[in-house]
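2024-03-11 09:14:02 INFO worker-7 job=invfold-0412 stage=load source=structure_tokens
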């Protein structure tokens, strides 16, 4: 019996006879609409997305540095005068610059940290890809936390393969490095050497952003602010009302809706409320499979960290918004005084800062969306149910019993990650 047929029969049994279908994994690998992705698509999408986000963080770091350059110059100038005159008056007159410079250091630090986090996610996805290529077992994807959620549904073609394999070489993942010949090693060295030129390239892009792209994309920047504001209002409402942030009643089922296997025949509707993770239906942590609990703890650790990062990026967006407003106000003030030079610098700073502002707002919204995915909510709720979520007392794990239907759950998972039509990501097609 094929896994697809097995899953279909389970679903029919669940809909017709009312017998719950046991599931032994929390679903993993979805696009931004939470549609199922095959393993290679999920891995490749996560890898490319993390690489793009890492590069974006580097660019936003440069943009932020340029936007605050005027403040650093003014701080240096006033400090020099204050020391020379042995007076605090220059510092008092340039207090706004000192506040801006301090905020700039705070913002730059967190942009850098986010770039480091994205690089960590990139390496994690690359390692999972290497393991999956060797085993061809989709169960290895369950070692991921939330790295494979909300990834772009990219086309796994020759270009994607080549880019993914190049990243494996650069980060020294798997056999791609162990079996590297001299020619390939030179190419890797050249790739790493080009990283040294990124700073000059980023600086060029920054000037383009400040004086062309950001003013032209003011509508997109405004919409990012609107989306961030909508999320912040929702979170404030939850905080005020004391509501639970988990949207779904996960006792009712593993999926909100049923999607037929890609390329397969249409299936008859059935009651998905009968598809459950054993132990969740009756809120009984002792009935949870230890593998589900282990997976949930990994997800929950990332859930807790994401919640902190979400709040942090909301704060960063607010700080950047205040800086932009202050820069514009300072520019108008300097313009009215007839100081056209500093007025131009102030408006340039505001324009350059609007790029990082959009980045902070977009990242805040993205982290919120990731926290609201089915996998994130399931992992967090199971960890909390078992009393092993962060901040809760950890019961003895010996109380958690293994479920006896492991093979059935794995068959359902294999069907969930059907590998038909995938490229091997070993050798890109010509």
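2024-03-11 09:14:09 INFO worker-7 stage=emit residues=430
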């Amino acid at each position: 019996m094929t896994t697809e047929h097995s899953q279909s029969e389970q679903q029919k049994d669940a809909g017709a006879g009312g017998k719950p279908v046991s599931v032994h994994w929390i679903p993993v690998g979805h696009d931004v609409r939470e549609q199922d992705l095959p393993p290679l698509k999920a891995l490749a999408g996560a890898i490319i997305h993390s690489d793009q986000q890492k590069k974006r963080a580097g660019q936003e770091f440069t943009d932020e540095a340029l936007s605050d350059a005027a403040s650093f110059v003014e701080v240096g100038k006033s400090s020099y005068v204050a020391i020379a005159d042995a007076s605090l008056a220059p510092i008092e007159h340039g207090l706004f610059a000192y506040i801006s410079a301090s905020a700039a250091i705070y913002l730059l630090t967190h942009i850098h940290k986010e770039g480091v986090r994205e690089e960590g996610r990139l390496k994690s996805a690359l390692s999972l890809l290497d393991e999956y290529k060797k085993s061809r077992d989709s169960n290895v994807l369950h070692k991921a936390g939330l790295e494979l959620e909300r990834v772009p549904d990219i086309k796994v073609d020759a270009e994607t393969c080549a880019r993914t394999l190049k990243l494996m070489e650069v980060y020294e993942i798997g056999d791609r490095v162990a079996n590297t010949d001299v020619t390939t090693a030179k190419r890797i060295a050249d790739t790493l050497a080009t990283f040294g030129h990124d700073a000059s390239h980023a600086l060029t892009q920054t000037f383009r952003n400040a004086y062309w792209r950001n003013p032209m994309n003011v509508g997109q920047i405004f919409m990012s602010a609107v989306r961030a504001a909508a999320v912040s209002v929702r979170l404030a409402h939850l905080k005020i009302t004391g509501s639970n942030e988990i949207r779904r009643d996960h006792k009712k089922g593993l999926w909100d809706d049923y999607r037929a296997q890609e390329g397969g025949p249409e299936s008859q509707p059935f009651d998905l409320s009968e598809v459950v993770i054993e132990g969740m239906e009756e809120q009984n942590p002792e009935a949870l499979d230890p593998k589900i609990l282990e997976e949930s703890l990994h997800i929950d650790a990332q859930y807790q960290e994401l919640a902190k990062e979400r709040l942090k990026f909301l704060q960063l967006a607010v700080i950047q918004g205040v800086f932009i407003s202050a820069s514009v106000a300072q520019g108008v003030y300097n313009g009215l005084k007839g100081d056209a030079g500093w007025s131009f610098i102030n408006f340039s700073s505001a324009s350059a800062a609007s790029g990082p502002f959009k980045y902070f707002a977009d990242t805040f919204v993205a982290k919120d969306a990731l926290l609201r995915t089915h996998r994130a909510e399931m992992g967090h709720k199971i960890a909390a149910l078992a009393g092993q979520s962060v901040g809760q007392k950890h019961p003895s794990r010996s109380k958690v019993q293994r479920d006896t239907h492991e093979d059935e759950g794995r068959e359902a998972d294999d069907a969930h990650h059907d590998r038909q039509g995938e490229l091997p990501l070993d050798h890109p097609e010509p």
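2024-03-11 09:14:09 INFO worker-7 stage=report msg="The mean pLDDT is 75."
2024-03-11 09:14:10 INFO worker-7 job finished
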